[in-house]
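Exercise 3.2. Students should predict the tertiary structure of the chain below and write it as structure tokens, then compare their answer with the key that follows.

Predict this chain's 3D structure.
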Amino acid sequence: MNAILPLGISRPSRLKDRIAQADALIFDVDGTLAETEGIHRRAFNAAFLEHGIEWYWDRGTYRKLLRVAGGKERLRAYAKTQLPPYRYSETQLAEVHQRKTRHYARLMAQHTCRLRPGVEAFIHAAIARRQRLAIATTTTFGNVEKLLSGTLGQQWRNLFAAVVAGDEVARKKPAPDVYLEVLARLGRPPSDCLAIEDSANGLKSAAAAGVPVLITRSEYFRDEDFSSALAVVDELTQVA
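Answer key:
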């Protein structure tokens, strides 16, 4: 069921006005622009198999691991839960993560990954209003490139005034670093911007930077606590 739940705004029409009045819209990527988390999970499992690690992340396990932001951080956190704990060096973790990244690129090339409903219309409406667009994500720039070149076209980078990936900042979400860097590149105060996120970690990250947040519920995070968001929608079709 598509239900719009404005938490800080009384009517959907006022929410649309709030979106239109923002100087800049800042997007998360995985889960927000496209339902990519399932592809990431498959890529991790392929990397484990290739590397000879007897791990397999089912859907439930991966849902829990998504509370940890960042692929290498997720690997590290999972290793600590195993008995006996696997002792991987940072070099070994990086190698496994590189394998995962290659498998993610392979899977993205093999399967058509579409943007979530309403995303493309939402982006083009913002461009027509002369709003600036930006990306604040914990994934790598390479993963962003694979997704958006296949969905928005090879010139996708021209649509965004700033793109900041997780490996460009010291701390990943829920820390505010990625949003603070985006704000610095845009040269705008946080109150003039609006973040579009799908997770509690993303909400906390943007809020800690002072940026109001619109949540669009995704497959893996739809039941998290979004009580501090400006509003929550099931799809951007509701506000495009």
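Discussion points: The first strand starts at residue 5 and ends at 6. The beta strands are 5-6, 24-27, 132-136, 162-164, 193-197, 213-216, 231-233.
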